[in-house]
Amino acid sequence: MKLQTVPIFLSICSFVKCTENSVTPPISSIKNESSGPEKIRQPVKLNLKQGLFMNQLLAMYTLGEESNQLCKEHSKELSVGLRAFEPWALKMFDSSSKLQAGILEGNLFEFGAFQQCIQIYRSTNHGPIRGKFCSLKVKPDIELLQKILQFRNISRRRFSKVHQFVSSAALAWSVCVPDSCSTQDVFSHFSKLFYSLSEGLNVTISLRDKDCVTIFDDEPLNATELSIIVFLLGFLSIVAISSLLHVFYFTSDEASKHKLVTTFSAYANSRRVFSKGPNSGLDCVHGIRVLSTCYVVIGHRYLMLMFFPVVNSLKIMDWVLYYRSTAITGGTLCVDTFFMISGMLVSVGFFHEVEKTQKMNWVLFYLYRYMRITPPLALVVLWYSTLVQHLGSGPLWHEMLDIVQKPCQEYWWATLLHVQNYVHPFPLCMTQAWYLTCDMQYYFLSPLILVPLWKSPTFGYINFVFLYALSIASNFYFAWINSYDGGVPVTNQLFSTHYFQHHYIAPHTRAATYIIGLGLGYSVTRTKGKKIEINYATVAIFWIVSVATMLASLVGSHAFHEETHEFNKLEAAIFLSCSRSAWTFGLVWMVWACIHGYGGPINYVLSSHLFRVLGRISYSIYLLHMLMQYLMSGAAKMPGYFSDFSALYAAFGDLFIMVVIGFGFTVCFEMPLIRLVTMTLKQGSKVNPRNE
Length: 692
Hints:
- By secondary structure, this protein is mainly alpha-helical.
- It folds into two domains: 5-25 and 45-217, no CATH class; 276-687, no CATH class.
- The protein is 64% helix and 4% strand.
- The chain has helices at residues 5-15, 48-61, 69-83, 87-95, 114-118, 142-150, 156-166, 183-197, 223-249, 252-257, 259-264, 266-274, 284-307, 315-319, 326-329, 333-357, 362-386, 397-404, 406-416, 420-423, 433-445, 447-455, 457-481, 498-504, 507-526, 536-555, 569-595, 600-606, 609-616, 618-634, 644-687, and strands at 109-110, 121-122, 129-140, 171-178, 203-206, 212-213.
- Strands 1, 2, 3, 4, 5 and 6 form a six-stranded mixed sheet that branches.
- A hairpin with a 6-residue loop joins β2 and β3.
- α17 packs across α31 and α23 packs antiparallel against α27.
- The longest helix is centred in the last third of the chain and has 44 residues, at 644-687.
C-alpha cells in the first residue's frame, strides 16, 4: 500500500466546485451544509485508477474498528461524504496530515490544519458530526535513528554527542476524525496502519487523551479564575483612579502629601521610570544589567526554536559546530553577570548602612529583600497557575501547558519560598525563576561573608577566600563524579537533564560568582572617593586581558561539541568550575574601571540614561518574557524554521514587545506593590529603627 494521497487529493479538488462554502461559521450560527430535504448523495464518477486511489484514501483516513455505534455511523458518513466530494468531508480529509517533505532535515511534526478541523460541523440523521484533531507520535528506536542520521553524515562517534538531541525525536502525524470517536478508536486504527506501513522497522506509536482536541475542550472560566480577573481589574481601577486624581485633581504639592495616590498612580510611576535621579557612581551597572537581560531574552528565543517543532531541526546539530553558536551555547554566562551585580549591590548597600549607623537591623535586612522580590513574582505565578490555558490553542497547546502551567499549580509555594531548586527542580514553575531562587538564597547567606569583613577585615579576607574556594571545589566535585561534559547540553530536553537539575541551577555550584560580587562591593566601598592612579599602559593591558578572558570563557565551550574532541573528565570539570569565575573576573575589571574613571567610551555608553530607564523595567521583562515566548510557541499552527537570522529576528521582536509589556507591568503592578511594601516597612522601622 503506497501513500498516494496527494494525487487523489488533487483529483478530488478538480471536481469540487463549491469551495466558497469552505469557511465554517461559529457553532452558535452553524446550519447543516445541505439545506432543505436530505439530498441524494451520489458518489462522483471516477475512473479505475482514481477509484483505487479513493479506496486507499478511505482505508487510511476513515476508522474501521470503532468501539461505539455512533462513531461507526459517523465514520460511514465521512466515507460517503468523501465519495460524494461533500465540502465538510473534504475539509476533514484536508485537515489530516499527508507525508511531508524534509523528514531527513528534521521536519518531524506535521501540524495538519488544526483550526479547520475543530470548526467542522455536519448535521446527520445520527446526530451532528464535529471535527476532533489528534496528533499521534511515531517514535523510532535508537538503531533506526542512527541509520537516519547517517544520511546527514553523522558518524557513530558523533552520534554519542548528539544522542541527547535526537533521543526523544518522534514523527507527529495529525488526523481529523469525527468527535464521537474515542482516543482509543483513533489509536487502534492508525497504529495498525502505521505498523503495517513500517513493517521491518522498530517504531512505537502513542496517542494520549490530551493529544486529541475538539472545539469544546476550551473550558469556561471557573470561580477562582473569575475572582482573579475581578481582583486584577479592581487593582487596575485603583491605578486608573489614582492616575486621574494625580493628573487632574491634585497639584504637585498636594499629590506629594497623598502617599497612596502617588503609590498607585501610573503617571507618578512613569515619571519615576524616566527620572534621571542622582549619580550613584555605579551607573555603568544599569547598562550591564539591561544588556544581560537582552542576552537572556535572545538565548531563550533560541531555546524555543529547539524545544518546539521546526522544519529543519537537524540543522541545529550542524549549527552547534560553528563558532558563532557559542554566543548562545556559552551565553549562559550572562546569568553569572546577574549574580555578580547582585552580590556587589548587596555588599555596597550593607557597608553603606553599617558605616552610617554602626548597626544592622537584621529583620529589615531579610524582610525587605523578600518583600521586594516576591510580590511581583507571586502575581506572575498566579497567572501561570490559573489563566494561561485560556490564552491560546493548537496541536502543541496542552503539551506546552504541562511544562508551563502544571508545575505552578502544584509547586507554586516552592517558587514563592525560593526553594524549588531543591524541592522540585523539574519541571520548574517559571523556568527562569531558578535564578531568583539562587539569588535569594545567596542573599540570605551573604552575612557569612559581609559580617566578618565588617567586624574583622583580616579574618574576613581569609573567610572570603575560603568560601570562594569551597564553592569552586563543590562545582568541580559534582562535575567530576557525574562526568558532566564541559558545555551546556544542546537538546530539546535540556530542562530534564541531570546536569540542568543538579548542577546548572544548584546554588552550591553557582555561588562563586556571587561571592566575587560581594568582594567587589566591599572593594568599591573601601575605595569610594579615593583617586587611584594607574598609567594608561596598565589600563590597556587590563582591558585586553579582561576581554580576552571573557571571550575565552564564552568560546571555550565549543571544543566539547566537536566530533574529534575526546571526553576528558578532568578537562571538563576544570572548565565547568572555573569558566564562570573567569568571565566574572573580566567583568569585575570592567565595572571597577568604569567606577574609577578608566572606562572611557564604554562607561559613557553603559551609563547612558536610556539604560537607566530600561534597567528599571528589566525585572518585569525578566519575569514575563518567557511566558510570552512559551505562549507564542505553544499556540503555533505550523512549524518554524531554525536559523540565526530567524532566531534573532524573532528575539528582537520579543524585546520590543517586552519593553512595552514590561513598562506597563512595572508602572501598574511592580512599582505600586514595592512602594506599598516600602511604606509598610518604614512604618515598622519607627518601632524598630535601624540604629537600635
